[in-house]
Design a protein that fits this description.
It is built from 3 helices and 8 strands, in the order ββββββααββα. It has 196 residues and is an alpha+beta fold. It has 2 domains: 3-152, no CATH class; 155-196, no CATH class. Strands 1-2-3-4-6-5 form a 6-stranded antiparallel beta sheet, with helices on one face. The protein has a two-stranded antiparallel sheet with strand order 7-8.
Length: 196
């Protein structure tokens, strides 16, 4: 994994000690197999994972609950860049649409949350033996898995464009045509109504 950005911004002064002590709060990278933008972001106490799909992807702009993928706890986010859920775009990339999940479900251990509740409830909310902390390695694996699933929902770059006169153009620069409800090459898309 080639890390493009890594930040540590959250104060952990009152947290119980654990493997999160030396973890970053934000990691940005590109998935090597798919080229999709990937993020891990700590949301106060727990880690969340995100994958960004480009504008031409069929899932761009879709609600997270309409995307059929398997990831820890299910998708819990779909949206454009905002706040810490954003990345450094590549040249010519344009806007991406993020799909994300969190690790604050039942049986997920949220590190700093227990420090907060200990001060309030005198130990009534101690971590339980059945809870697991979802660390950076775990979340990285889930993000990578999500990137591969989202890529499979897009075009296969080895497929030929179905609208080219000779059917010869590969879908390396594919655009999803809403009118045709299929992937076509950029040239056919730019040509306009003729491909319909």
């Amino acid at each position: 994994m080639n890390i493009l950005r890594q930040e540590r911004t959250i104060d952990r002064t009152n947290w119980l000690s654990g493997e999160w002590d030396n973890e970053p709060d934000l990691i940005e990278w590109r998935d090597e197999a798919t080229g999709l933008a990937c993020l891990i972001v700590r949301a106060r106490f727990n880690l969340c994972g995100y994958v960004g799909v480009p504008h031409r992807h069929p899932m761009f702009g879709k609600e997270y609950d309409s995307v059929d993928v398997e990831v820890h706890g299910g998708l819990t986010f779909g949206g454009s860049c905002h706040g810490r859920i954003c990345h450094t775009p590549q040249a010519g990339e344009g806007e991406v649409w993020w799909f994300g999940f969190d690790c604050a479900h039942a049986f997920d251990y949220s590190s700093g949350h227990y420090a907060l509740t200990l001060r309030c409830k005198e130990g009534l909310f101690m971590p339980q033996a059945f809870e697991s902390y979802r660390n950076v390695a775990y979340v990285t694996g889930e993000v990578t898995n999500l990137a591969r699933q989202l890529a499979q929902l897009g075009p296969n770059p080895e497929t030929k464009c179905p609208t080219c006169p000779a059917g010869m153009e590969p879908l390396l620069t594919a655009v999803f045509c809403e009118h045709c409800d299929r992937w076509i090459c950029q040239d056919c898309y730019d040509f306009g109504d003729e491909h319909m």
